[in-house]
């Protein structure tokens, strides 16, 4: 990456809103810099970076993909800039009265949708059930967390596990918080791949301004 | 089973208006200039084209009746049809093409093939049974198409120029072939041709279609005796002169012809003269012929034992001579010549 | 009498043709060169991809069969009758090709899902739920892939010569027989091409399938889904899976070709 | 002389045809019924989807044009010459249809990415990087969509009657002229169908595009990618975007049709 | 420009082996039974089919030479070709079809259309200029195909049954038309036909192709005087009897025929008898004819002023009578009959 007047930020698609808010802020601070945000699934971004894409910043929703990139490029460890929590996604108003993970694991009348264990949301969901000492038989394993929300929103599934940020501000689904004892924290790592400007963008994420934007979009802060 | 056809329809800018009957077992030949509507007429009879106002019936079966709305499906009409182009089914071999009809009409596989083989033998194409249509010569394809039409034991035969690609050796056999094929069912046949010999030999009667209308229907002899249009005359190799008759003189305006004895009234009339009845001379001939006129040779077509000389002024006349006869008078194209014909050789009919 | 001496193709077309070949070949070579072939053994013995593979092959073939059963009549009606809504129907067919697959899945859910326009009725009255079943996989593939057959065939039918059909009718063939023995054989090239396109699109289909049919191992998890998920954790494995899919596809194609080649190809003797 | 009185299609085909139509129509109706039409105004005034739309339309048309430029020669070579590797080439074409799109994107990266087999050379010697440019969008679409043209056209060319070409040659037409004035017009139905299939596949393409070309607003963010992002947060918006895409696709299709209809359709007078 | 053709090639299971020359401006007619290889020969000349071992040259241009490997592309040969099926370009209207040649050979758009319009007028199809090929009648399509071939001002004309779909009125004009079309360039013409009249009138010479080989080449009169095969005899309406000659008697084994005076050697010989020279009788005739034999009527073809009677035993013979003549003897198909012919009417040639 050359920096110069263009800064390529590779960010997980779930960070679309955050990046949309950060871009003008960074550009205001660096009038000669054009921030270009490339949004896709973390694994796609990782593949692109490993194939030689000139990313200055890689903000991942998945630590596994971040590790793949770090190892592939021989870079130091990444910093966590945001966190997220799981939430039970239900139909608006929670008509089926779903109150906790136990319902998802035990109620036969529920169609449950989880993300596949290969993707982070699925991994975290499994961890959550593990912590709760439950096993679950989902009807379907979605390719990504968005699939979970879509399926509940369309009424095809009665419940699913997604992130708090997925439910925020949506009228077609509601979120039921997990009990406090289930303590699965989702961490979003970011890495300045090879430029000074990239490091500045990472700094912005950790700044007060960055943290308030993250918070406004529903993310937790490390 | 008599075929009754009454059709009134438009074809492109033209109009087809035909009324005819073909008797049980009768073979009706349809002749006519290109674009007269022959193919269109056949297609209407078969049901491939609309028949418009009118009625088509074979025996007691009414195939089309604009009055009642009756309209029998093509596949139920049992017509042995040979289209103007052979139109073999490209993905089937020759035998399968011929077997297609019997098979479609319910015969078993082996039976269909036997019927087909039989029809192919009749047309002398049994050695081509395994061939793909695109490897057949023009004449071979046409024979296979005829075999295919005959293999369904048709109630009506409809042949559109079925001999156009056949060599001369094959043509004389066609009449017998058609007779045999339809003998059992006494099916009538409607046959289009451009070949004068075919017209005279294939059919019991000839219908002349010109510009969508039948201008004359009759036996070959009737047509030859009194052709009603120049086309018929040309077809039969007869000179036809239209004019106004007054006693024994027919006048075209530019030309007067003394005709033979007759008993028709004065007025519009048609005179016919056989090409071989006319003599040509280098100079004005003396003697008995009552009709003598001067003309110019337009063209000469040389045949093996016949030379056809064409004169255009003052009337269109063709003259047949022997090659020796032509040498004797020694004229060529463009030369002046005198023609003569005896009045007794000129027959006249009311026009 | 149709074989000509010289190839009638202008020599220069070889240049763009070679470019076209390169466009297809290079990525495949790239893929093959990146594949961790040493992992192949473990992949083949792993039952998960095998069941996904079987599901993919079976559903894609079922899809192709149903696409033929529905698509051939549809193409016929579009090409051969003066149906009033002809243009609209053809447009709707094209439309399902244009939709991004995931949206196609959403569309299917909104029609046939538990809360869908029709799905609701099925669910309420028959207790029938389509999503999460292999049938849903087939429906998703059909929706996305069948238009390829319909469009290909419709155009071929429209320009096919009608004279052979006419002759067949005079020979006594009823409409069904004409269809089976003349019309379809005369467009067998397009029929074969359309079927291959449909099948290829179906076996590669991922977005609509996972959205509409979900992803349950052994029930609705097809090879593309397996591959997509592998891509999240082990790209090398994903590449191997894809090559497996490609290999099996070629095998299926060749097997069908050898069986159907006399019926499906337009080759002259 | 070719218009027949009765439709020669068996009546009963209307049943499967209607089923086929229902299969396509119901999901679309479902989609339309779910769309939050009240948001349409805001969507139309938003510049982001508009630039994605423009990019989608432009790249898909460019793709179709290039697919024609390369695919027509390729189909010709495959159908008309006795190229030794004919079968292999056709197999490779089919293969890129079978690959899940995301894997197709990976394949393209491994060939044309900066570290790819060819991409490395381009980068080192010409300073040319393909991914993350609109050219990459076109290449991704080409790789996925062009086979539809090649397969359709190849089969049509193989079964086309050669006699008209022969006559054209006797009339003095050189190979290029024969190609342009006889061969291609005689397969114009298949050419049109293949082009439509290619274009539809291209404009709906998502997986290969986002993987190979990335998702840079205004540069490589196509409408399907925009729709993907909308699905993350606002499914209603995604549905609207899809319907926008469908509407624009229909408009493009109709516009092209009206311009090219005399040349592309096999309709008889 | 002389056309020199030497071709040796296989067609399917058959073999084509032809060696012929056509002089500047000469019209050579090729006749022969179906499947003889006529179309294949034409296609080889044009370059559409391989020419195998041999040489094809027009004037100084060598189009094909298996010795040197020379092989001119079809499009460079400038041949006006009318295929056996019209093969119009389906997506172009009739005028564009005819203009296609001039346009392909470099003429401008307007010029090409003018040339085409001119050719169409010659063939009387100018009124069809805007028509799509699939709306043309068979004869109309064939005329357009001829116009198209003539419009390129060919160096060689190659016509494969160009008159098969034309009505009789159009045929006599063909000779003049071909002459005019090739007059300026003095292009030779090769014309295939099945029509005897066309064969005798369209061409300067006739070449007979049978089973891939030329069996006789000559003028119509030469062929009529001494037909070498039954096909030629049939074509020209002549009876041909092969046998072994001993003095004035030709013996076929089953039959002996006394022939007219001649000066050929004993041995294999061919006798010819004109159909009209033979008389038929109900009972054994008395009188001068030296040849009298009993036979049976196989078929009767009735024409307007000619009836052709076919006898098959002990030799194949056709007899031409007038209708009146036939009525006089009153025989029908299958009846026994006596035939007689004077020895002086039987000419003989060495076989
Ligand atoms: N591809 C092929 N395979 C087998 N036989 C063939 C092939 N092409 C041509 N023939 C045969 O070669 C012979 C000569 O065919 P050709 O078309 O030259 O005959 P023709 O003299 O023009 O006959 P016609 O008067 O019927 O048009 C025929 O018997 C034909 O069936
Ligand atoms: N679709 C059409 N549009 C315009 N004209 C048509 C159409 N179909 C046929 N015709 C015209 O109708 C006339 C009659 O055609 P038809 O084929 O019946 O003639 P025909 O008597 O069989 O001629 P031929 O002897 O040349 O075969 C022709 O002038 C033809 O051009
Ligand atoms: Mg006709
Ligand atoms: Mg021929």
Descriptive key words:
heteropentamer, A: 222 residues, alpha/beta, nine-stranded mixed beta sheet, 9 helices, 38% helix, elongated, B: 351 residues, alpha+beta, Rossmann fold, OB fold (Dihydrolipoamide Acetyltransferase, E2P), 2 domains, six-stranded mixed beta sheet, five-stranded antiparallel beta sheet, binds adenosine-5'-triphosphate, binds magnesium ion
Question: Overview of this structure, please?
Answer:
With 222 residues, chain A is of the alpha/beta class. Chain A is 38% helix and 24% strand. Chain A has helices spanning 16-29, 42-50, 63-73, 101-106, 120-131, 145-153, 164-167, 196-206, 208-216, and strands at residues 6-12, 34-40, 57-59, 79-90, 112-115, 140-142, 159-163, 174-177, 185-192. In chain A, strands 1, 2, 3, 4, 5, 6, 7, 8 and 9 form a 9-stranded mixed beta sheet that branches. In chain A, helix 1 (16-29) links the parallel strand 1 (6-12) and strand 2 (34-40). The radius of gyration of chain A is 18 Å and the shape is elongated. Chain B has 351 residues and is of the alpha+beta class. Chain B folds into 2 domains: 3-235, P-loop containing nucleotide triphosphate hydrolases (Rossmann fold); 239-350, RNA polymerase II/Efflux pump adaptor protein, barrel-sandwich hybrid domain (OB fold (Dihydrolipoamide Acetyltransferase, E2P), Beta Barrel), CATH 2.40.50. In chain B, the strands form 4 sheets. Chain B has a 6-stranded mixed beta sheet, with helices on both faces. A 5-stranded antiparallel beta sheet of chain B has the order 2-1-4-5-6, covered by helices on one side. Chain B has a 5-stranded antiparallel beta sheet with strand order 14-13-12-15-21. The relative contact order of chain B is 0.12. The mean pLDDT of chain B is 88. Chain C has one domain (42-265): Orthogonal Bundle (MetI-like fold), CATH 1.10.3720.10. Helix content of chain C is 76%, strand content 0%. Chain C has helices spanning 14-34, 40-45, 47-80, 86-98, 101-112, 119-126, 134-159, 163-170, 175-186, 188-204, 207-212, 223-233, 235-264. In chain C, helix 8 (163-170) packs antiparallel against helix 9 and helix 12 (223-233) runs antiparallel to helix 13 (235-264). At the C-E interface, loops of C face helix 1 of E.
